[in-house]
Amino acid sequence: MTVKEPCRDDFPALGREIDGRGISYLDNGATTLKPRSVIQAVCGYYESNGANIHRGKHRLSEEASDAYESSRTVIARHIGAAANEVVLLRNTSEALNLVAAGLDLAPGARVVGCLDAHHSQLLPWRRVGHLDLARVDAHGRLDRDHFRKLLSDPPEVVVLTHCSNVTGVVHPVRELVAEVRAACDATIVLDAAQSLPHGRLNVRDLDVDFMAFSMHKMLGPTGVGCLFGRSERLAALRPLTVGGGMVDWVDLDGSVDRRIPFRFETGTPAVASVIGSAAAIRYLEELDPDKRHRREQDLCAALVDGALARPALTLIGPPDHTDRIALASLRLDAAAPAGEVARLLSDSYGYMVRSGHMCAQPVVTELAGGEVLRVSAYLYNEVPEIEGFYQALDELLTWLAPPTGG
Amino acid sequence: MTGTAAFEAARQEIAYAFENTAFFRKHMEDNGLHPADIKDADDFLRIPPTAKPDYRRHFPAGVLAKGYTLNSPRVMRFQSSGTSGDRLNSAILSYDLARRQATALAVNRRFDDLWRPGSRPRTCRFAPPNCSDVECATGLSTLEDRTLPDGTVVLSVAHDLMATPEWQIVKALDELEICEPDLLLVDSTHFAFLTRWARRLGRRISSPRTLHLVSGYTLMTRVARREIDAFLGADMPVGDMIGMSELGYLGFECHKGRRHINDQDFYLEFVRDGRAVELGTMGELYVTTLDDTLVPRIRYATGDYFTPLGDACDCGSDLPVVRIEGRATQAVRLRSGRTVSPGAVDAVVGDAPWMDLYKLEQDPTGACTFRYVANSAEQAGDAPALETRLSEALEPNPVRVEAVDYIACERSGKFQACVSHLSAEGAW
């Protein structure tokens, strides 16, 4: 059933007022707001259950375990995976750390990545191997020649970022995977944290070995990160942590790990948040994908065109609407510190936007030279909000204009 | 300034704010008022108080006076995390700040040498960090990175004061030596913490110039004051400042140890239930700025409570004497309907030589927990005696006293000695 349209009333936080003014939430690249159905799913678990999972035979534990595992199935189905190929962790960072550490790479193993990767995709690989980064052009599009050149000395792992959280660029991941497969037998790890919230992906079609994402960027609760791994690859992965919940047997001489994916899930998980994650996916799947795509395009156009129309702003990312999400990073004049502007936009105008290096400092430094202001829209945002944001920014920048003397 | 002259100045401020700021004009018009309607003190009460949310929401477009931008000469911008986490963006003219500071500091003869004609005191700040915990508070930034446009050096401080690593404390002490300041601007709890570490490390806090210490940001507890005085000695001028980020110095401690409030640069009211309180009675401070051409504020409800005492002070200053009571949102609310201010709680605790730090917290049910970090001077009867005093002061609400070795700061980095989850949710 794909009949529903995203409704602002579904998101209680959007009804909030601060100092008597409504808010516009435009920091969706960091995390999205939660619809009522997700909140109710989380609350429902705590109100009617609250027991631990996989640890008891009593009624409440069984119920909680059933709800938890059925949520895993919902998440797996959403990406075209089998349920045992989805590991439920805390966040994308943890998922990528698990792969990086679990592959047991030899010291100095060569890894190829991309300059616009998030720190979550840079630092785990830098820790275990030698990371070479493919360049991007002035608009943040991948330098394909440089990428191919890096593949010519076959790496052991290629780590791809599907969508940059700074430029909004959606990379041609299918083509990139095909190039890797043609060039070498490297393990391919995809960071889909910024792309999956904007449209479904199928891991079989993508032909990746591992894919990481977080539910909180797609209407779900915080504290749930997911790692997809092809079953044979997961089976060969070394667990990052050991302890309760990941073993079938422990005696004085040793232990026997559980099967995948449980061997990677140590300790008591975020039960309520995982149950809420399934509610988030149900919400997304009930939406009409065509209408959702059109709205996304409209928001993207408003963001890009609004930036291009203002000479005082430098858009970090492509000056077009193709292959990008509704996200615009803006470099401001030196007289307008991004952090202060973000704070004023919030407190004086009600627009919640992000400032700083976006946890992707190399690409921000390369393309912008310093901190940026990031405006990222999602399915509950509307074009007039983007227009209002730019009007507020215009007004604010006049108050931050260079001194006129006196 | 006499009462008549002060009120006339307040009337001029009203007229200026009405003519030059969109927010205040609308505020008056929404209430059917025009500056000409305000002829006497009773008329003045017809103007509904303004508050921090008004100035936050309308900053800068609605509250900055015509003709100014945030980059105009002598405009100092700042971002405050707020004493109670109620943050604010605002701006102030540097000379207004200096004037208010001079008026306030003039009550204390021991600060007379701080400003000499043509000199500019070297200032270091050791206080809750305003920056995020990936910037200053990590301690990884350089001294240059932490030097403000006015020359103040911000010493690196962790958000969670008691979890500050030793190397960061050593760094702060080293940087103090390098800076050789005239003036240390500190949060008393933070600085008391630094003195405990300095003592442990065998370090001194001094300067080849005459070092002065001004404490602000949060309520200065008697415990912190005792520790600071004991470490710095009697010769160093120490003063407790009454201030707000958006207004600057509202008052200061005189050399006789009493707190005076600045009625020269502000028109002041102490209000409870909409009326001016009697002398000796606690009331919320309402401030009307005088001759503030940048962000004039009219009947600005500060959320801070004071008791105006009405008596003369031996120090010789004419500025009114007050007792600091603390934030309304931090007062303990009792089931009997009574409220106990943070200042009153501090009076019950006293200077307690047997403890280094304390925090009284009232939970949403009304119950109070007093946590303290003891030192080697603690005797067996100290804590029970304090528990008895606190129970009497806060009856009928239950009070529990706990010895701990760690107390967390707020997320903003501030350490409040008295907080109430009940008061934070509603009016006093």
TrEMBL record, chain B:
| InterPro entries from the UniProt entry | ANL_N_sf (IPR042099), CapK_Type1_Caps_Biosynth (IPR053158)
Which spans of this chain does the record mark as coiled coil?
none
**Any idea what this protein is called?**
Phenylacetate--CoA ligase
Q: Which organism is the protein's source?
A: Streptomyces qaidamensis
